[in-house]
Specification:
The protein has 276 residues and is mainly alpha-helical. Helices cover 72% and strands 1% of the residues. The protein folds into 2 domains: 14-70, Helix Hairpins (Orthogonal Bundle), CATH 1.10.287.70; 71-275, Up-down Bundle (Four Helix Bundle (Hemerythrin (Met), subunit A)). The protein has a two-stranded parallel sheet with strand order 1-2. The N and C termini lie far apart (73 Å). The relative contact order is 0.11.
């Protein structure tokens, strides 16, 4: 009787994944540093494989815990708090790139930043930079992401109503739209009239949109895993935290893109000498 559980909290079993994950991250970091100094990338790749394996194994354990019934309403609430904090940290991550872009664009000729004035010519976009036309591929990708937001919402509502076919097809369409967005962005990058290095516009543009593209890639994998789990029948109307978090993450990616499109593509093209 002394060992009988009389609370709603989940006291997790001892797990090797936090320690193994930290070791893998350390190996990957050291390998990445060595690679940037001319060494072969094998150490970095070994660390990356270790990180990916730990992610798969650790999250598999979390799924098993949910299926066993350890995710009580209290535990689910705390998982939601954790996901909210994670998304909040991601927001601040993108704030840094927006800050860099707006600081350079609002003050292109600041006297203190004399090196910046040399690169920008005292105006924004910098002299000699031909920017993208926001009403071509960027607008198309905006429509793609907005449509994907509706399909993932459709999938969520279908799950809540017990419509498994609606859940599966909503996820299939969302994954396909995510792949389409990434493909169009790769095409856009291949046609970019400016490079990452050598100019402050290219650096801020590719860092902001590139990291967003990476988040779209991660979100697509997140939703693809949810699709596999949906086909396996692992989600129920009352037990679907994994899918709920994937949907939250996808909506976050959508909102970030709207800010990117309106500020970097649309506002950043105003006054541009050349539009590609």
């Amino acid at each position: 009787m002394a060992a009988t559980k009389n609370h709603d909290y989940h006291l997790v079993d001892l797990s090797p994944w936090p320690f193994l994950g930290s070791v893998a991250v350390l190996i990957m970091a050291i390998g990445g540093i060595l690679f940037m100094h001319g060494s072969p990338p094998w150490m970095f790749l070994a660390g990356l494989v270790g990180v990916l394996y730990v992610m798969f194994a650790w999250w598999s354990d979390v799924v098993k815990e949910a299926e066993t019934g350890y995710h009580t309403p209290v535990v689910q609430l705390h998982h939601r708090y954790g996901m909210m904090l994670f998304i909040a940290s991601e927001v601040m991550f993108f704030v840094a790139w927006f800050w860099a872009y707006f600081d350079a664009s609002w003050y292109p000729g600041e006297a203190v930043q004399f090196a910046r004035t040399e690169f920008t010519g005292g105006h924004w976009p910098p002299q000699g930079i031909e920017v993208f036309n926001p009403w071509h591929l960027p607008l198309f990708n905006t429509l793609v992401l907005l449509l994907s937001g509706t399909t993932v919402t459709w999938a969520h509502h279908a799950l809540l109503e017990g419509d498994r076919e609606g859940l599966k097809w909503g996820l299939v369409l969302t994954v396909l739209l995510g792949v389409l967005f990434s493909s169009v962005q790769i095409l856009e990058y291949s046609e970019a009239p400016f490079s990452f290095s050598g100019n402050i516009y290219g650096a801020t543009f590719f860092m902001a949109t590139g990291f967003h593209g990476f988040h779209v890639f991660i979100g697509t994998i997140f939703l693809l895993v949810c699709l596999v789990r949906a086909i396996a029948g692992q989600f129920t109307p009352k037990q679907h935290l994994g899918f709920e978090f994937a949907a939250w993450y996808w909506h976050f990616v959508d909102v970030v893109w709207l800010f990117l499109f309106s500020s970097i593509y649309v506002w950043g093209s105003i006054g541009a000498v050349g539009i590609h």
